[in-house]
Amino acid sequence: MMEIELPKMHQSQQEMELIDILWRQDIDLGAGREVFDYSHRQKEHELQRQRQREEEERLQRLQEEKKALLAQLQLDEETGEFVPRAPPSSQQTTTPPEKVQPAVFTEEDVGTLSFDECMQLLEETFPLVEAIETSAPTLDPSVLPAAHGSPVMMGPQPQPLLSATPPPQKPLPDLEQAWMELLSIPELQCLNMQMGDVVEPQGYSATSTSPVVQEPNYPFYLPKMTDVITVPAESVCSSGYQSSFEGAFAGAVPADSPGQATLEAPDLNGAFSVESFCDMFYPDLTDTTISHGGLLGEGGSEGTALAELPEETPVKPMDISEFTLGEGFASKEAEVEFPDSDSGLSLDASPNNGSPEKSTVDDSSFGYSDSDMEEMDSNPGSTKSDYTETFPLSFVAESIQGNSGAHSQPGSSQDQNAGHPKTELAEDAGHDKPPFTKDKHRRRMEARLSRDEQRAKALQIPLAVDLIINLPVDDFNELMSKHQLNEAQLALVRDIRRRGKNKVAAQNCRKRKMESIAGLECELDSLREEKERLLQERSENDTNLRQAKQELSSLYKEVFSMLRDEEGKPYSPSEYSLQQTSDGNVYLVPRVKKTTGKTRGN
DNA sequence: TTTCGATGTCATGTT
DNA sequence: CCAACATGACATCGA
């Protein structure tokens, strides 16, 4: 993905943005910015000593407070010096501070991360560099790629370089080297972006998250970057990349982002102390990391995630504005999708909606609408997500409509957008083409689970489905009274509550049924065991009985054989038998009718 | 294509 | 009478 996209990129600004993003990513991944700044500073100092650039020194001194910015500025200056930049230092601060700062950042990023690497590269490709320098800054970019072979190739190299950063600490001999570094850095960053698996995500997140704060910077960066490195950026980043990036950004950044960017930019410029600098980035980074965490996890494929990341970073105000439209679209779709509360919403509705919206809305935005749709589908699956999403969605839609409220809402929307859209984008980009059965299954399952949630979203019901379903009647009624809902919404809420309760009831019922079946089976087993036991007992009793009878019979015969009549003759068993009375006495009773029947007591 | 299990939903009865 | 619950029956989906 990345490889393909990279060639496509032709905008220096985009490259610059990518570089910046990469830098941030690197920072996130690797050490803290301060560390980087230090290294950069040291490097810069060395360079300065070697070159003894007055401008650089001044910048460094002045920006000591703004170490990060200063370092960047120095680097920029270096690059600028190398190129045509001597004057820019003052200009940057004054005329286009925004631009300068961004550029500085990018440079720093490059320097920090890949400075040593750049040095090495310079050494290796020194001849090339010189030629490039002589020719022109613009040429350099092209040359560098050639030296590396290709943007793709660059990817691998940068990482190693990063790892080797410590050793490479060679002072930059010439401006050419600096150029090389600058040029190489973007590529490296791009490569890093592609290459970095774990790191990339962070970086990605940083970039994505950064948008809110950093976006402002981007425009600034872009100009400078373009000035310094026109070719490399283009070669490195593809337009498609940018576009995708923009889409992601739009999602992450509210419609207001453009305006915010301008506003924020001044802040950055004004106070670029180290602390402020760090604050600026870290907060974003944290946010981004959080949001991107999902991406990484979802992204699954590193390459896809990386590709997406770079794209996002380059987002520009223009793109953002377009994106806002996309968001509005998503909300619209939702509404359209769920005119009815109940019956109308079949399972089909949710999935289908997603696609239609895309077609209609996505004109400019890449997959933002898609992402939204996916959110609609997927998020519903999880109850939590649904809740969170429902609110945001409605709010976002409103804000978009209003077109002004982006600021406050963007925060919420942003967070979610940053997380979801990106994640979704990542998934889409990474998985859409080769959708994993698991993903599909998961999505479907989620969509299935979230029908009511989707419906609630469609009608912009500002209530969590769980609340609607699980709240006690009183609380539920109170909640309903608080939120003035129209007929359709009320009906839907009631249906949701009914269905939700019935769903739970059905689940419980089935559970009970299963438990009952299991209990009956268990009882059946126990009864069978008892039956066997009883049969066994009976057989034993029969045996004992037979034995007892046998013994009794033998005893009887013995006793009977010992009986003698008056004449001393034994009685005939056929004519007499022994019988015991209730009182315990035993009598010899004649079997056949015998008038003579005598009784003899024993 | 058919079958089967899981799940959601509806209709209805019960509490 | 209403709400909640229980349950049989049906539909849908995915394996």
Automatic annotation (TrEMBL):
Domain BZIP, by residue range, is 492-555
Parts forming coiled coils:
40-79, 510-551
Kindly give the SMART domains that the UniProt entry links to this protein. BRLZ (SM00338)
Q: Which SUPFAM superfamilies match?
A: A DNA-binding domain in eukaryotic transcription factors (SSF47454)
Keyword Nucleus attached: yes
Q: Which domain of life is it from?
A: Eukaryota
Bias type Basic and acidic residues, positions:
421-438
InterPro entries, alphabetized: bZIP, bZIP_Maf, NFE2-like, TF_DNA-bd_sf
Keyword entries, A-Z: Activator, Coiled coil, DNA-binding, Nucleus, Transcription, Transcription regulation
Q: Listed GO cellular component terms?
A: nucleus
Q: Which PROSITE patterns match?
A: BZIP (PS50217), BZIP_BASIC (PS00036)
Q: Report biased composition (Polar residues) as residue ranges.
A: 349-368, 401-417
Check the record and name the Gene3D superfamilies matching this protein. Answer: Transcription factor, Skn-1-like, DNA-binding domain (1.10.880.10)
Low complexity: bias regions: 88-97
Q: Where is this region: Disordered?
A: 79-99, 336-388, 401-451
One annotated GO molecular function is: RNA polymerase II cis-regulatory region sequence-specific DNA binding
Q: Name one GO biological process term.
A: cellular response to oxidative stress
Q: Which family does it belong to?
A: Belongs to the bZIP family. CNC subfamily.
Q: What is this protein called?
A: Nfe2 like bZIP transcription factor 2a
Gene source species: Paramormyrops kingsleyae
Read off the lineage from the record.
Eukaryota, Metazoa, Chordata, Craniata, Vertebrata
